[in-house]
Design goal:
DNA-binding, hydrolase (chains A, B), homodimer, 255 residues, alpha+beta
Chain lengths: 255, 255
DNA sequence: GTAATAGTGTCTCTTAGACAGTATACC
DNA sequence: GGTATACTGTCTAAGAGACACTATTAC
């Protein structure tokens, strides 16, 4: 190995069992929509540290468990067996991010359709949720500096999040905004059949900005992602809109 | 805590020291340009596993060391004290990715200017390098499925990379391509003063596709990133081009 | 002068925003 | 009929590709 490599690193490479290791965890930003606003599932902490604050659901990664599997396990535990989009966000590894011990956490973003989100809240009585208040900034560039987000309780007060979880939520919003227009994530927040207006509402909720209707329709239809079903919504007091289905184009496994 | 949380996870949350932990490492894709092609620094492994294959430089994360600090340490060890762009890529945590033991590795992308890249190769005799052969695909979309990349030795043979490092390199190329047009990474591969043609050469090398000259110039100048110096290149047998300097616009800390 | 590349002016094409118009439901 | 929303046609503005043109150096 390289002579420029430090002695400690050299030894650690071959027998790191002798060295203290950070714990490895996953934390999930479980996002959905609640009353047309971006929302996320939170657990209220009842003990030290950060007792009383809200935290993202998470768990330690088992020694024989892949990162994705750990994230999927936490997702199952909190949201049931619902199919959902799950994507790795970023890994947070500041030394003092948890005062109890050194924990490196891999943050994941999970997206739940509106119905699944509401159902998860009902099933698990300890889950609460917060809506994300958006700085009105138009179509955000994912490369911009992290804009701080404010998480509001259902009654409208600002929630203080535990640990570095506010930073994780801000990154999740930023990633979601960045991918919204060119990826399929927008459809993950909708039921199987939806109208173009519903799709536009989702985009506007995530971006925090109104969008031009004809341009939005053209863009979405030109993407080739939308399959018209010939069926129409019912129960409206006005002209009913056609229902569409999401049809993935390429086999694309995404990020 | 939630009753839906498994007993094991509950216990692990409070005393994970009793459980076996994965080791946490960082691996670096140290990219630069060599003769106008994207290139990366590699170490040839001389022992099991994957002896004879090439691997990314890396190291274990100390118990009191932030992830970024570990990445910066490995960067220093391999490339000296050169200032460079350093950005987290993704975290790889498949159970069997290293046959010796469970290692979760946080991959980082580091960019070195062409001179610093060459200097690093000279300083460390055990370092070798490979150039990345690009599938000609035009401006890549970072959300696309990972396109496999081929890493070639200086003599042109395809190198087999150890572990999942080929996947990491593919992701690095994809990320670099995705950010190239709207971020400042392109300038990190250039010396302090450079001509517009050099900048375009860098973009073309990364994207693997020729670009339109007037459009490229307009775009770059309109970004407000380029500061003309009034100085010109020397030693050409044709009209010398003006030298520009990169001027960051916002304080932007980026990703 | 020639050769080679730097740098610019302009046309066209594509795409998005703006906005007005028509269509179809319920009352 | 009125009203509310779905859906469309068309104008305009911005940006990129194409390509020809001028400018400046070495020889």
């Amino acid at each position: 190995m390289s002579p420029s490599e430090s002695e400690a690193a050299f030894l650690a490479r071959y027998d790191p069992a002798d060295y203290a290791r950070p714990a490895v965890a996953v934390d999930l930003v479980l996002m959905g929509l609640s009353a047309g606003r971006p929302a996320l599932l939170l657990l209220r902490r009842d003990r030290h540290p950060h007792a009383g604050r809200h935290a993202l659901p998470g768990g330690f990664v088992g020694i024989d468990e892949a990162l994705e599997d750990a994230a999927a396990r936490v997702l199952r535990e909190k949201a049931g067996g619902v199919p959902a989009h799950l994507e790795q966000l970023y890994t947070f590894g500041a030394v003092e991010r948890d005062p109890r011990m050194r924990i490196v956490t891999v943050a994941y973003l999970a997206l739940l359709a509106e119905a699944a989100f509401a159902e998860a809240l009902e099933r698990a009585p300890t889950l609460s949720f917060g809506t994300v208040a958006l700085p009105r900034r138009g179509v955000a560039d994912e490369a911009e500096a992290a804009a701080p987000v404010t998480v509001l309780s259902p009654t409208g007060e600002a929630l203080r999040l535990a640990f570095d979880h506010a930073e994780i939520v801000a990154l999740a919003m930023r990633r979601l905004r960045g991918k919204l227009d060119y990826s399929e994530v927008g459809f993950r927040l909708l039921p199987e059949l939806f109208t173009l207006r519903q799709l536009q509402d989702v985009h506007e909720a995530i971006l925090g900005t109104p969008l031009n209707k004809p341009a939005f329709r053209r863009r979405m239809l030109d993407r080739g992602w939308l399959e018209p079903t010939g069926r129409f919504e019912t129960g409206t007091s006005y002209r009913p809109a056609e229902l569409y289905r999401f049809r993935p184009t390429s086999p694309s496994q995404g990020d």
